[in-house]
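Customer ticket, subject: "Can you confirm the structure for Sulfate anion transporter 1 isoform X1?"

Message body: Hello, I'm evaluating your service for our small team and ran a test protein. I'd like someone to confirm that this is what the system normally returns, since I don't have a reference to compare against.
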Amino acid sequence: MEVSPECVQRGGGPVLVRRRSPAPLGLREMLKARLWWRCACSPQRAWTLVQDLLPATRWLRRYRPREALAGDVMSGLVIGIILVPQAIAYSLLAGLQPIYSLYTSFFANLIYFLMGTSHHVSVGIFSLLCLMVGQVVDRELLLAGFGPAQDGAGPGDNGSRVNASAAAGGPGPQDCEQDCYAIRVAAALTLVAGIYQVLMGILRLGFVSTYLSQPLLDGFAMGASVTILTSQLRHLLGVQIPRHQGPGMVVSTWLSLLRSAGQANLCDVVTSATCLAVLLASKELSDRCRHRLKVPLPTELLVIVAATLVSHFSQLHERFGSSVAGDIPTGFVAPRVPDPGLMWRVVLDAVPLALVGSAFSISLAEMFARSHGYSVRANQELLAVGCCNVLPAFFHCYVTSAALSKSLVKTATGCRTQLSSVVSAAVVLLVLLALAPLFRDLQRCVLACVIVVSLRGALRKVRDVPKLWRLSPADALVWVATAATCALVSVEVGLLAGILLSLLSLAGRTQRPRAALLAQIGDSGFYEDTAEFEGLVPEPGVQIFRFAGPLYYANKDFFLRSLCSLTGLDAGHVATRKKERALEARASERDPVEGVDLGPVTSTAALVTTAASFHAVVIDCAPMLFLDAAGVATLQDLRRDYGALGITLLLACCSPSVRDTLRRGGFLGEDQGDAADEGQLFHSVHSAVQEARARRRALAATDSAL
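Agent reply: Thanks for trying us out. I re-ran your input and got the following:
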């Protein structure tokens, strides 16, 4: 460690002692050390790796049944009861048979139990992802020569299709029926999306999901919810219209609904109105009485059971033509490797699925971890969610992620660990093995009602837009643009538009940050913005400039314009004119022209004096997060121009990273203890002002002596 002599001479106050930083390793040595650390193997490191990949092996040893078992069992039972109707309902969104949603819920709960780091997140089918899967499935069905995903004409159709999927063995659409090909597309899409997420986790790219801001995710959820609501209206009304694809799907669907409104099934309309009224009323009652209710009301399950009984004994399908769920087989279908040809076809469609699933899963895991006082690992969450997609893709499942509504219910019912996921999987397994056929007469309009009511929370977020606008107009613009693009164009384009707008808003905030002149607060050593506060005391002859943002290639011109506007001096222009006049003066001395008045060639000093009423400029670099090469060059040019005019440029409150950049860029000397550096950099604005004042007095004393 070293003490700068210049620092000691300038005052008797505290002296900063600079630490000697260790010599940095070269790239080759650093890579060699990291490779050796990664490849070193021992039983302890192997066990640590297993614990990192399977966190359940770590927390299960510390599990306390007396404290956690009751809450885990209760929350697992409640989530399992909620999962069953949601799984059957969300199959409408994905364009698949209900049995595949039950498979997905079962495997996702078991895998996340082993690999997840969050104690409270519920991983399973998610309405937004189901919508995106359904759009890809419909497109591929049309390209393969099938029609869009059908509703199923009667109770006997679905079972034969699932049996065909179990018996089919070839890779093409010619060897299986429509439902068989649909699940092949969904499984291929799921495997590719899971591979993306696993690779992101291995490469430690968990931070990428943080670039999907909360306004972007909320706007995306709002726009996708409008799309989901529109897609379910045909089931609520009982009309037969095609599932539209591509941009403008929402508008096209509404036009088709208006044209087919006269063909609505009266039985489905009455059933939908009744179920919506009951579900919405129960949800409002649960929200108002949630502090009194220890366990949420399983309204969805009760409505589905009641509707199934009414439909069965009233024979609504046979008498009124109401569309029903159809046969749901029991047991498991033999595993199958997803089709590589289909995987290549959906390789781009899987990108937004992987990003959205990762962003929602990580954000929910971190939210519950903060509220309950523990930590999660973003990269391990990526691995967990990715494996929840990769492994089940071989068992006829589709894309999953964390779901907010079920996670909130899980927390409210006393969940303490992911053991509750095993209980939920057991409930789903019971339905798969025995209870699934009981839902064959369930009307599809009832399932659509369950989906629509589940969108209530996302649709309510529109009420947050005015508050968001007052807080940050840029974030509100991202919200509105993302939601509008998702609803009016497509979900994938909306997500892309939201990401681009978020990045542009971030760049815009750094491109034109706030710039201000500072003045002293009374006799203190603190300085504030003269445009914001009154009664500040300006320092005579010293301009204190604050630039509240980084200085880089995109805002260097704005930095110079702001400095010129606030100080009233364009240093580059005046210094250039001074240099030109000096050249003209030398030329006139060498080659005088008789009878020609060249003007006041020696009046440069007077020009500079009248233009610059100050002798020093102090730049407050505290808000300056970083500099790039263009920023360093800008400061070098500014110091040169000010120096030509006799003005001193001083920097205050530079962070260590900014100081290092200035040193590497040549603005400072190579040695950290250089006395010249101590004359340019100061640890506070007040010390820089005092230094400028002292230099002015010393210069005045020298001039008077001469």
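A couple of notes from the result: Strands lie at 123-124, 401-402, 515-520, 527-529, 542-547, 616-620, 648-652, 681-682. The first helix runs from residue 5 to 9. Feel free to reply with more questions.
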